[in-house]
Design the sequence.
């Protein structure tokens, strides 16, 4: 007996991380492809530099993945010399028309982050990594 009625599995629910909000610019992949080529980089070279598989990068460029991970976008923006704020807007993470107030802590953090210059962005990430590592170390050391 088939595991599904009539031998047909139910439709998969879409992955919300891959959905594009109605106001997101659908040309993100094309912009990233052009920026990569402008830098004279192949997908394999980008993979070597940032550690993201070239097949995944290709899916982003072709638009199969509409809303890539924020960390990947940040790496690509830095590598390609693109303004991260614009890349985040094109991916639908930021709405240029939205009010600055937000109930979302992640949204507020992202908006604050993109307002920083690249040096301060690097410093902020270094600080957050250090904070996370200290917290992980504190919880892994038994009192005694």
Sequence:
């Amino acid at each position: 007996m088939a595991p599904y009625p009539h031998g047909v599995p139910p439709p998969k629910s879409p992955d919300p991380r891959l959905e594009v909000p109605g106001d997101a610019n659908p040309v993100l992949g094309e912009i990233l492809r052009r920026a990569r080529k402008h830098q004279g980089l192949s997908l394999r070279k980008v993979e070597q530099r940032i550690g993201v598989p070239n097949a995944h990068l290709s899916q982003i460029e072709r638009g199969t993945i509409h809303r890539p991970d924020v960390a990947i976008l940040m790496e690509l923006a830095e590598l390609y010399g693109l303004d991260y704020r614009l890349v985040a807007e094109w991916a639908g993470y930021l709405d240029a028309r939205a009010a600055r107030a937000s109930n979302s802590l992640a949204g507020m953090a992202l908006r604050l982050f993109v307002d920083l210059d690249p040096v301060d962005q690097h410093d902020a990430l270094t600080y957050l990594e250090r904070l996370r590592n200290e917290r992980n170390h504190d919880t892994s050391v038994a009192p005694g």
Summary: Confidence is low (pLDDT under 50) at residues 1-26. The domain at 20-96 is CATH 1.10.260.40 (434 Repressor (Amino-terminal Domain)). Helices lie at 28-38, 43-50, 54-62, 70-80, 84-90, 105-114, 118-140.
